[in-house]
Structures are given as C-alpha cells and as structure tokens.
Amino acid sequence: MSRLSRVAAALAVALGAATLSADVPKGIETFDAAWKIVRDTHFDKTFNGVDWDAVRTEFRPKAEAAVSVGELRGVIGAMLSRLGQSHFAIVPASPDETAPASGGTAPGRDTSADTGFDVRLMGRDVIVTAVEPGRGAAAAGVRPGWRLVAIGDTQVGDFLKAVPDSTNDRLRGLQAWRLMQARLRGSDTSTADLSFEDAAGRLVTRSVERQAEKGLPVKVGSLPTMFVRVTDAEKKTPAGRRAGLIAFNVWMAQVDAPFARAVDKYRAADGMVIDLRGNPGGLAAMMMGLSGHFVAERKPLGIMKTRDNELKFVANPRTVDASGQPVAVYGGPVAILVDGMSGSASECFAGGMQSIGRVRVFGQTTMGQALPALFDKLPNGDVMIHAYGDFVTADGTRLEGRGVVPDEPTPLAREDLLEGRDRALEAALSWIDRSAERGKSR
Predict the structure, then answer these.
(1) Which residue pairs, CB below 8 angstroms and at least 24 apart, start in 218-221?
(2) Least C-beta-crowded within 10 Å: which of 312, 327, 350, 425?
(3) Beta partners for 226?
(4) Mean pLDDT of 316-322
C-alpha cells in the first residue's frame, strides 16, 4: 500500500509500441476491467470532475498497443492518475521481463528485507531520519542526519529526476521516499553499497546488510506481506513527569492487543504520546477501538462517504483493560506525532481525534492521502487498489489533498537529527507539562 509507486508505473508509458502482443496475456481485458471498476465503484459520480468515458477513449488504444506487461501497467497507471486522487494503483503479480533497467525496482524483485534505516526528502537532499538499533545500518555505522548520496553506482540525484517537480512538497517527498525504499530493499542477507555525507561533510561509503523485517507477519489478500510492530517506552517530560510513548507501524488488527497492554502500562502516567510518524495506514475501522482508550463517550470522529452510503466512525470507549478488568478510560493529555509519511488510517485517526479536541498533534503535515480503498484482482492477476470512499472529520474537514495540519508544527531539520534531537517529541512532552500545570490551577 504505502510502498506502491504510481510514479514508476507512469514512467513505463513512454516505452510505446505498435500492437498488442501475445506476451501481454489478457491485456485489453485487464485494461477494460480496471476502467470498469472505477466507473462502478468510485465514490464521486463525477469522478472528481474527470470525463471517465473520454479517458477510456484516450487510453484504450495505448493499452491495445502495449507489447509488455510493464507497459500495460504503465498505461493503466497513467489512466488512474487522471483522477488526481490517492489510493489508485496497481500491485504487480509478476515481473515484466521486457522492461528496461531503471532507477526503480522491477516488479517481482525480492524486497523482503530492508537496510534498517529510514529516509525523508528535505529540499533536494535525501536524509537519514532513523536508524534501527541492532540491524544492518546501525552495524555499518550509519547515523541519523547523514545525507544519502548514492546507491551503488547511481547518484541519488538521478533517482530524484524521476520525481516530477510539484508545488506540493509533501507529494514529492512521498514519491521520492517510495523510489528510495524500492532501491534500498532487497533479499535477506544481500548487501547495499551506499555512499553518504556524514556530519562533518565527508563522503563515506558503507556496505549495509539487508535483513528480514522484524515484527508479526500479516497477509491481506494479494498484497505483499506486512510486518506489524508495536513498541512503547517511558519518557520524562522537562519537568520530570512520566509519559508513555506508544508507536506502531501499520494499522492492522494485530496492533490492538499490544497497544492495549501499552495503554495499561502507562495508565497512571501524566500523559501519553502516540507516534504515527512513518505509519502509512491500513484498516481505518481500527480507529474506533483505539480511540476508545482515550474517549469516555461514544463520539463521532468522522464520516466515510461512499457513492450511495455514509459510514460513521465513532469512538468506542474501552472500559476494561487487557486482562478483562474494569478500568476508567485514560483521561490525561494525549499527544499524537505525525510527519509527511503518516497516511490513510493514521490521518483519519489523528484528524478525527483532533477534530473533537481530545488530542494535540505535533510534527509535520501528513500525506493528504486519506481515501478508503478496496483491492480487486484483475484478469491478468495484478491487484488494483482503488478508492471507494471519501473521509471527513467530525468538524467537516476533508483530509484528502490537505492532510492533518499539526497544532504545533515542528519542522524536520538535518541539524536536529545530527544532534540526536527529536523536536516533535520534545514539544509534545513540554505540552504535557503545561497541561499538568493547568490542571493544578483549576
């Protein structure tokens, strides 16, 4: 979901050819199926102002002329991009053997392992934002704040040329992140030869071993396996108060139990911080249960609008702990941390809780990709992700294209990363202190 690159798919359109060949099984049938899925399920009967019949007329000849699987996917991807909305993409079922080498990752390449670090685009630079302890990057000495210069013999700048300039910096950052992740991932125990600029401005090279992802493997339909990770840690505020920090990487049902145990652990804390940075989303319905740890009444968080119906997302109070014992819903201050890679269900949760005034949000504006999606298998075996609903928060805020705007923005700066500072977390902990002082004065 979060690692799909419509940019890479769209680039394949430029390969062009004359006739549909036998090497593209069920090619035109697949194109027609993708077009019909949008026609029959899109939540907006005006298709976001796009003449969907005219789009079919324009792109169907290109699909008929496709001579490779990758080229057909590119045509479909370009067609879907005309909607100008998130959550429309193709998940390849097999590699395209005729596709030329490029800065991206060919469909079907083994990407089951990662390098153990994350990156973000800052201006024209790709900066390491997090290094996971005990994994490949940490063992190789990679540090947060280092600038990624090259992957193998290819300069990072060459990859970024594949990302079109846009007035939407968040979208550019998302597309760049997807391209970088595609190249950084690979098979377990393989190595990535990487060049960085370190804190002193020196060019350093590291051979980083890729390792299988940690976490509980979860399979959803035909999507690639995801690995669920929930972590928690006790933090001290500037005034020495106790706060619980809870983080998870994807919205899946397997998050619920460890999240509940973490809430129990910090039930007596002066505040809680939920870290959704880098969390691209998942099952949006989970927000109703997780919000219930912090909301004592059934309150609406938002509405999902489909073509013919509306579904209300309501906080369901959690009045028993993980062991089944009665408890009061946590009533202390709750902060949420987000960034440009917080998307979909993370945005719905953060925006929904923000709209009812139950949380304060810190960090950077989120993806702005908050449309609920379905997954349908196409005739050629590929899976099509397509939005079937829109989401607005309880106060009427539409998150698609806008994102969740933090109550206290904290820009991401390379200098902070090099110094080991987390300004978003620092701001959240300071706010917990302020909330506690206000509580005393009442």
Answers:
(1) 218/250, 218/252, 218/254, 220/252, 220/375, 221/375, 221/383
(2) 312
(3) 218
(4) 95
Q: Which residue has the tokens 């390491």?
A: 128
Pairing between β-strand 334-338 and β-strand 390-393 as defined by DSSP bridges: unpaired
